[in-house]
Amino acid sequence: MNASSTSTMLQALPAEHRARLMTIAREVSFPQGTRLFEEGRRADRFWIIRTGTVALDMRVPGRRAAVIETVGHNELVGWSWLFAPHTWHLGAEATSPVRAYEFDADVVRGMCQADPALGMAVALWVGDVVAHRLRSARTRLLDVYAPYGSGNSR
């Protein structure tokens, strides 16, 4: 996936909102193979990737987890933190060494509540990412499990 297929924080948020969020960012690193989170567990943080790649996957009963999408530079990892009940809808694993900015979800939600303009900008950004990921999940699952793939059979 490339940055043009979904909005990055740089594209989606006005400079002042990006700057405010970056004041609470923490730099983190993950070795290849690290699970960042598991589907169904508490979503209490999110990341913006600086370098490396992360595979987003979905559990499929009786099968290996299906990789829905791989994300990289400047992309959001984790959106479930924004929406109650704040549990991960997918899993995530570093497919290469990753350096990222990590954000505490409680702090960001508090900032969004205190500043409605920031809240709206974050909600629209994350909403755009969610919509893209749902389309990717649908396409990927159709490719893997439907008799004719995701192509139009008509």
Automatic annotation (TrEMBL):
Domain Cyclic nucleotide-binding, first and last residues per copy: 9-78
UniProt xrefs under CDD domains: CAP_ED
Cross-referenced SUPFAM superfamilies: cAMP-binding domain-like (SSF51206)
InterPro entries assigned: cNMP-bd_dom, cNMP-bd_dom_sf, Env_Response_Regulators, RmlC-like_jellyroll
PANTHER family according to UniProt: CRP FAMILY TRANSCRIPTIONAL REGULATORY PROTEIN (PTHR24567), HTH-TYPE TRANSCRIPTIONAL REGULATOR ARCR (PTHR24567:SF74)
Domain of life: Bacteria
Protein name: Crp/Fnr family transcriptional regulator
Name of a matching Pfam family: cNMP_binding
